[in-house]
Known about the structure:
It contains 13 helices and nine strands. The radius of gyration is 24 Å and the shape is globular. The chain folds into three domains: 1-26; 27-108 and 261-290, D-Maltodextrin-Binding Protein, domain 2; 111-259 and 302-329, Periplasmic binding protein-like II (D-Maltodextrin-Binding Protein, domain 2, 3-Layer(aba) Sandwich), CATH 3.40.190.10. It has helices spanning 2-29, 43-47, 49-57, 88-97, 118-126, 142-150, 181-193, 198-206, 216-225, 237-244, 269-280, 282-290, 315-329, and strands at residues 32-39, 60-67, 82-84, 105-117, 130-132, 138-141, 233-236, 249-255, 259-266. Strands 1, 2, 3, 4, 5, 6, 7, 8 and 9 form a nine-stranded mixed β-sheet that branches. Helix 8 packs across helix 13.
Amino acid sequence: MRRTGWLIVLVVLLVVAGASVGHLLGRRAGTRELTGVIGSQMAPFFADPDVRAALAGHGYRLRLDPAGSRRMADLPLGGYDFAFPGSAPAAAEIARRRPSAGAPVAVFRSPLAVASTSPIVDLLQSAGLARRAAGSSWTLDLKAFVAANQRGQRWDQIPGNVTFNVKQAVLVATTRPADSNSAALFAYVLNQVTGGDLGAVTKVFADQGAVDTTTEEPFESWLRRGKDFAPLVLVYEAQFLDRGAGGDHVLLYPQPTIVSEHTVVPFTTAGADLAKLLAADPRLQRLAAAHGFRTAGAPGAVTLGAADTIPSPDEPTLHALLAALEERLT
Length: 330
């Protein structure tokens, strides 16, 4: 009887083990591998092991290629299940050019912001270009900034400057507006602030010289080199909150700014299912918030009032502005 009992236990264990292996094999066999093109600022989120595990739990494995959001519509997207640019206008242009498997889905949001350091922000404040707002956040006065750029304001011309006394123009380092969503939206905000003065907007970008094509590139350079790369760098709030906060790093919000909706454009049924999952799954939304993105349950580190933001432009309006800007820059 004792031997029989052990045999029964062994058989049960083998059955349980076999069932577990079969379940795992079934899950693997049922895994959907999707391909997508994403804005570079979202790469750290999708590289997070917890995000990958959450997606795997729903049967997804993703192969992703980063690209500038404004350039996605020009890419050969035939082999992709979805595109995930950093804004609704970019998503609308992609959907216009390529048949989609459903309406674009806004997954999370992030305002445009500027990464800097405490000594630089102190200089901006003394020059009347920055001020501390409610809730201890900093704002960059874009009207004053453009006016300073128009008169050729340099860092070494700021009175009392002993921390960054260089003969360089006071600029925000950006990407190329034609390529990157962050710079495109910044151009739109500047155009609104200047009342449509395209010459003034052009000068802000032209004074930078050669620039990168994705938002992650200048941010990575700033993280490595600080003000030796650039004293001010245009970023998304989420990028800074995820990886840039620390030490004497400071985040400024352009006054006004624009809240960019990171939006999935599905090209296949699987892509549409993934878009809905990213937007609705509580665990994935919590993980997005942990990476600094604003979600339905996490409004953001700083509450932006209506006076602090302007609505996102529609794609035809933004396209026309960028075409006119690109003509002047080339």
